[in-house]
Amino acid sequence: MENREEKILETNRAELTGIILSEPYFSHKTYGEAFYELILGINRKSGCMDCIKVMVSERILRGKCNLINQCASVIGQIRTYNEEICGRSKLNIVIFAREFAIADESARCCNIIYLDGFICKPPIRRTSPLGREICDIMLAVNRMYNKSDYIPCIAWGRNAAYAGDLCVGARLCIEGRMQSREYKKRDCEGNFTVHTAYEVSILKING
User: Fold this and answer.
1) Is the pLDDT of residue 58 over 60?
2) Separation of alpha carbons 168 and 62, rounded Å
3) What is the mean pLDDT of residues 30-53?
4) Is the domain 114-206 a CATH 2.40.50.140 member?
5) Mean pLDDT over each residue of the chain, to the nearest integer
6) Beta pairing class for 192-206 and 147-156
7) What is the mean pLDDT of residues 21-40?
8) Which of 6, 23, 87, 156 is the most buried (most CB within 10 A)?
9) What DSSP line would sit under the chain, residue for residue?
10) Which CATH fold topology does 2-112 show?
C-alpha cells in the first residue's frame, strides 16, 4: 500500500511553506476522523500574497492551537471536489496535507506544485490586456480508489503556445505554483460578492 501511495504522490505533489492566516476550522468528518481547514499565506516575488486553503486531519494537527502568524511547512496533494451553491456546481480546491509542521520563522516561503496528468478539456488560448499569450488548461490527475482530481492550470508565453496545441487526452507533466485570485460574482439575490479562485500557474512543462 505504501508503494502505491508513494507512486500516486509523485503525480500530484505540493510543497508549501508560509504563514498561517487563520485558526483551523472544522471541515468534515470521514470514517470517524475529523478534518480541518486553515489558510496559509505565501508571498510571491512580486510582493503579492497567495492565500491557500490547506486541509489537515486531527491526527496530524495533534491538538496544535494558537497557530495564527506561525510559519508552517506542508507536504501534500491538490484535492478537488464539487459543491452545489444556489443550484450551481462550484469546484473547490484545497491542499490535502500529508505532512504538517511548524517551521522556524526564518524559513523561506515555498510554493511548488508537481503534477502528472491528462488534459480533460480543450485548452483555451487567449491574450492578456498587455498582449501576453495565455492558455487555460484543465488537468485530470489520478489518485487512489479510482478517483481523479480536476485541476485548473494556467500557462504563459511559450508554455501557453505549446499547451494550446495539445489535444484532450494528452499527458502533461508540469511544475508550477498554486495561486489565488479574487473576483466578484453576483449571488442568488443579485448582490455582488467577492470570491477566491485557485489555479496552478505553470512554470515548466514536460510533455
Assistant:
1) yes
2) 43
3) 94
4) yes
5) 90
6) parallel
7) 94
8) 156
9) -HHHHHHHHHHEEEEEEEEE-S--EEEEEETTEEEEEEEEEEE-TTS-EEEEEEEEEHHHHTT----TT-EEEEEEEEEEEEEEETTEEEEEEEEEEEEEEE--TTPPPEEEEEEEEEE-S--EEEE-TTS-EEEEEEEEEEETTTEEEEEEEEEEHHHHHHHHTPPTT-EEEEEEEEEEEEEEEE-TTS-EEEEEEEEEEEEEEE-
10) OB fold (Dihydrolipoamide Acetyltransferase, E2P) (2.40.50)
Single-letter code of the amino acid located at 185: K
Q: Which residues of 124-157 are buried (b: 16+ CB within 10 A; e: fewer)?
A: eeeeeeeeebbbbbbbbbebeeeeebbbbbbbbe
Band (pLDDT 50/70/90 cuts) for residue 86 is low
What are the distances in angstroms from CA 67 to CA 26, 72, 100, 180?
A: 15, 9, 12, 21
pLDDT at res. 4? 45
Cell for 73? 511547512
* Banded model confidence at residue 145, pLDDT cuts 50, 70, 90: confident
What's the burial of 191, exposed, middle or buried (CB within 10 Å: 0-12/13-18/19+)? Answer: exposed
- Is residue 69 exposed (0-12), middle (13-18) or buried (19+ Cβ within 10 Å)? exposed
